[in-house]
Amino acid sequence: MNGPxxxxxxxxxxxxxxxxxxxxxxxxxxxxxxxxxxxxxxxxGVPLTEVGRxxxxxxxxxxxxxxxxxxxxxxxxxxxxxxxPGAPLRFLLDVHLGTLARRMRLLGVDAAYESExxxxxELAARSAAQRRVLLSRDRGLLRRRELWAGAYVxxxxxxxxxxxxxxxxxxGLAPWTRCTACNxxxxxxxxxxxxxxxxxxxxxxxxxxxxxxxxxxxxxxGAHHARLEAIVAGAMGEFGGARSALx
Length: 247
Description:
Protein name: Mut7-C RNAse domain-containing protein
Strand content: 15-25%
InterPro entries: Mut7-C_RNAse_dom (IPR002782), Ub_Mut7C (IPR027798)
Domain Ubiquitin Mut7-C: 4-82
Organism: Streptomyces javensis
Radius of gyration: 22 Å
Domain Mut7-C RNAse: 90-231
Strand order of the largest sheet: 2-1-5-3-4
């Protein structure tokens, strides 16, 4: 670029997106004189999904502002909890976030996910068509213009990912009400109606069951239930919500 020079500051939470020389409290950025502020910020590596207020010379500006020579720009992070107006709070996760998707479903959060890589264009199109917040660690995917809404997942550890998403969006929690396999709603199931789907040991040992209304998968308090209960208890203790339906 060979145009107006501006002075830009990224909030500390956003600096890791930028190359090292742009992580100082203030950095000089030469623009082309026609690109919007949103384009300039993205060119530094920061997805706009992570940007809150933009201050130009101390006054709030929009991403469509074209910065002029000598302007000072402050890029602030998204304010948490983040509100997503215009649709029920639902999510779409990319192929790399399968464990996070299952944990969100465990807590009753509507989290669509495909185990096969359907490609960035299709993910972005689904986000727009279904009005879902796209969760990803792929900055390029989050820059696609057709997204309904998106959020960068900052950690690669499922426990931290879950806390990040719950803390950022504060969705309502209703554990054990959603199928962890397909995201469909669960309903109470009489033991006799699911008997043919159970192994003999399960039929003999357990009495309380739930069934997915979409894929018909059957759930009960099996050997792994204690581990799942620990995930639920941790999330409920920190973020609140309804009690477990199978507890």
